[in-house]
Write a structure and sequence with these properties.
8-stranded mixed β-sheet; disordered N terminus; alpha/beta; 8-stranded parallel β-sheet; 24 strands
């Protein structure tokens, strides 16, 4: 097999020789791997595509062809034949919860449940296979589109589980439904007050319905035994396997318990974590250990970075916990929940600034987003911090240019739009959709958008996220009034969300995000060209190969 590559030995020598003129470092003799035989998108404007990528054994790209033009034989290099597949810079999920992804795979997964009737049937089937006193915990339901037109209640669960404790988390993680036995065990009744940043939904008589929001969930979750270290380890390993098999090379890991940092580093050393991780630790952990870890950059490896902290301003739109400037259109008695008040946010921002820690701040409602902008601006901070607003879902149009001007990064999940826009008009009214999921508006204003999935809230597929960004339609190809198709992105813009912009959001633009000499060899390979196939066919694509730091960490079976 012959491959056209250029003056490569000289280029390899220049890339590897750091010992001085005339001296050759040990790296000069590293073997080379060449990826070729398909379409290769660089993520650059010029060249947009190349025929081959040359990677050194330490995982660095040392050249592409063209412009290189020297013949090599099979015994001089390792050839990775792409088999006419299409390679991209590695796709990074800029917002996901790795532990939750693994736990979803290993527990009762209610994703796709189509009605309360089906939910109850699935819980009943789960109960039949367990001891009578065994607790049932599940996640993934969302009532959008259910024929009953409401959330499930304790009464729905009680009819099939009796006195058993059942806790089922909504897909967004900001609400749950609990059985009556669970409410009793947690001490939640008609006299229980709503905590700050949380809400206990009640019926007309004042009794708890079983729906619990945000911080009010704490007594319910206290009933669930903390997972053992082995269970946590198994969940992380499973999540890494699943994500690599979907084509993700990296993940910005949100709300990481600080005590998990050494475990993640251990998994990487044992070659059990195939992904590149950028961890954002839970900012409300006891003793602010998350800030200390991020400040000290401890427990890092060559593929794990620890420099961010995750905060929460509000809840989620679907459960009416997102903090809004005006009340909910379909529930005028509430404007959502403030999990972090401005004074507390200011103190946390000052701590982060002092410790040189990046903040990733959850904000979904327009008031939550505005409060971040107001405090950030008042403190006089600029774009050098690269602090992130996670979700940035509902933004008042006057605040969109402020995000760009202040240099805050909009960390957004395209799949949220194609799901949420089925109920967002009811929650907000049509007038407030102008600043909802405003990808193009933010880009036009000059903001950086990092693309993610928020799995396990969503499926966690790079293909779904890419499709949602360019189509702005649901998975069946439908849209509706108020979906604002002008906010859809071009293919190139969508690609940047998961590659170069994701790298920038992690201070890694010199290492990742494009395929060019000097960068890390992280590649995602699909069986078809996402840049030119009809948009509906994007969802039919299949991962072929996932490469992290030059190593093939997953490959589709032949």
């Amino acid at each position: 097999m012959r491959l056209i590559l250029a003056a490569l030995s000289a280029i390899a020598l220049a890339a590897c020789d750091t010992t001085g003129a005339g001296e050759q470092s040990p790296a000069d003799t590293q073997p080379l791997t060449i990826f070729t035989g398909g379409t290769i998108y660089t993520g650059l404007d010029d060249p947009a595509t190349v025929e081959a990528v040359v990677v050194r054994a330490d995982g660095r790209i040392i050249g592409t062809a063209p412009p290189l033009s020297q013949d090599w034989s099979d015994d001089e290099v390792t050839i990775v034949d792409l088999g006419s597949a299409v390679m991209f810079p590695g796709f990074t999920d800029s917002h996901a919860h790795l532990l939750g992804i693994g736990q979803r795979e290993l527990s009762l997964d209610l994703t796709g449940t189509a009605s309360i009737t089906e939910l109850v049937t699935r819980v009943e089937a789960e109960a039949e296979g367990r001891d009578e006193d065994a607790m049932i915990v599940g996640r993934g339901w969302i009532e959008t589109g259910w024929p009953e037109g409401r959330m499930p209640t304790a009464a729905d669960l009680d009819q099939v589980v009796g006195d058993r404790i059942v806790i089922l988390q909504r897909s967004d993680g900001h609400a749950l439904v609990a059985s009556s036995a669970a409410l009793d065990a947690a001490g939640i009744d008609a006299d229980t007050a709503d905590p700050a940043g949380g809400k206990i939904e009640r019926d007309e008589g004042g009794s708890a319905t079983g729906i619990i929001l945000d911080t009010a969930m704490a007594p319910i979750w206290a009933l669930v035994a903390a997972p053992s270290e082995e269970e946590i380890r198994r969940a992380y390993i499973k999540a890494g396997e699943v994500y690599a098999s979907r084509g993700w090379t990296g993940l910005h890991n949100m709300s990481v318990p600080p005590e998990h940092a050494p475990l993640l580093a251990e998994l990487d050393r044992e070659a059990l974590m195939p992904l590149r991780l950028y961890n954002a630790f839970d900012g409300e952990s006891q003793g602010n250990d998350g800030f200390d870890l991020a400040a000290g950059r401890t427990f890092e490896t060559d593929t794990i970075t620890n420099r961010a902290v995750k905060l929460y301003m509000d809840g989620a739109l679907g459960s009416r916990g997102a903090l809004l400037i005006e009340p909910y259109a379909d529930r005028p008695d509430t404007s959502g929940l403030a999990i972090t008040e401005p004074d507390r946010l200011r103190a946390l921002m000052e701590t982060a600034s002092q410790k040189d820690v990046q903040l990733a701040i959850h904000a979904i409602g327009d008031l939550a987003n505005r409060r971040i902008l107001d405090v950030y601006e008042d403190l006089g901070y600029g774009n050098e911090k690269r602090w992130r607003i996670e979700h940035t879902q509902i933004v008042n149009p006057v605040d969109i240019p402020r995000i760009a001007e202040l240099g805050l990064i909009a960390s957004m999940q395209p799949s949220h739009a194609i799901g949420d826009l089925k109920f967002a008009p009811a929650r907000l009214g049509m007038d407030r959709l102008d600043g909802a999921y405003a990808w193009q508006g933010l880009l036009d204003a000059g903001a950086v958008i990092a693309g993610g999935s928020d799995a396990p809230v969503e499926v966690g597929s790079p293909l779904i996220e890419f499709y949602a960004a360019v189509a702005r339609k649901d998975l069946e190809g439908n849209d509706a009034e108020g979906w604002h198709p002008e906010q859809a992105l071009s293919r190139q813009e969508a690609l940047r969300l998961f590659t170069s912009s994701a790298a920038y959001a992690a201070f890694q633009e010199d290492e990742l995000g494009t395929i060019e000499p000097g960068k890390r060899a992280d590649f995602t390979v699909f069986d078809r060209d996402l840049m030119i196939v009809p948009e509906a066919e994007i969802l039919d694509a299949r991962p072929v190969m996932t490469v992290v730091q030059g190593e093939i960490v997953w490959k589709a079976s032949e």
